[in-house]
Design a protein that fits this description.
It is a single chain. By secondary structure, the protein is an all-alpha fold. The chain contains 9 helices and no strands. Helix 4 (55-75) packs across helix 6 and helix 5 runs antiparallel to helix 9. The longest helix is centred in the middle third of the chain and has 21 residues, at 55-75. The chain is globular, with a radius of gyration of 20 Å. It starts with 11 loop residues before the first helix and ends in an 8-residue tail after the last helix.
Length: 192
């Protein structure tokens, strides 16, 4: 009988995360199964549980990664940009459209281990980045930075969600440009 060659996976954690993101993009979060992901990564069915413990642990890792990516996307807008908040909104929409699987998981707290320290830290970092766009406005334009941040977040998040679900009419070929144009068409508080 021939010996079975030893199998070594270079980065099992990343392979499982990548496979999970592919499944979410194509079939939605409900289609996630640790056993199926193990098959896709060509490892034992117990291997994903070793890294993530359970499905919620896997989804928590995806959400954490998503919030880190979002925070990075929001912080690329320079602080001295004239319409920083508007540009941060466009970055938010671009992030959501570029990372739809992350986006689908990030805002579904019932699927996650909400008390995971890495998730909590990543969420705080993303919200701080968003809030920095509000705090950079003149004081008279931002009487309540928390409410203004919530309003800005709701606008960008709502647009991105509608776009990803196919609910928006096709206004042009670039949804990020559409968002920027729509936001520019209405008075905002981020005028110099």
């Amino acid at each position: 009988m021939a010996a079975t060659p030893a199998y070594h996976h270079g980065d099992l954690r990343r392979a499982v995360l990548s496979a999970a993101l592919d499944v979410i993009r194509s079939d939605g979060v409900a289609a996630i199964s640790l056993r199926d992901l193990a098959r896709r990564a060509k490892v034992s069915h117990a291997a994903p549980a070793h890294h993530f413990k359970d499905k919620a642990g896997l989804l928590t890792a995806i959400a954490t990664e998503g919030f880190e990516l979002l925070a990075t996307a929001l912080t690329v807008v320079p602080a001295d940009t004239t319409h920083r908040l508007r540009e941060m909104g466009a970055q938010y929409v671009e992030f959501a459209l570029g990372h739809p699987a992350h986006f689908e998981v990030m805002f579904r707290p019932q699927l996650l281990h909400g008390d995971d320290p890495e998730l909590v830290a990543a969420k705080k970092r993303a919200f701080r980045a968003l809030r920095s766009g509000i705090e950079g406005l003149p004081a008279a334009s931002r009487p309540d930075a928390r409410r203004a941040a919530l309003a800005a977040w709701s606008l960008a998040h709502g647009f991105a969600t509608l776009q990803l679900s196919g609910s928006l009419p096709a206004l042009d070929d670039d949804p990020v440009e559409t968002f920027s144009t729509l936001v520019t068409a209405y008075p905002t508080t981020d005028r110099p």
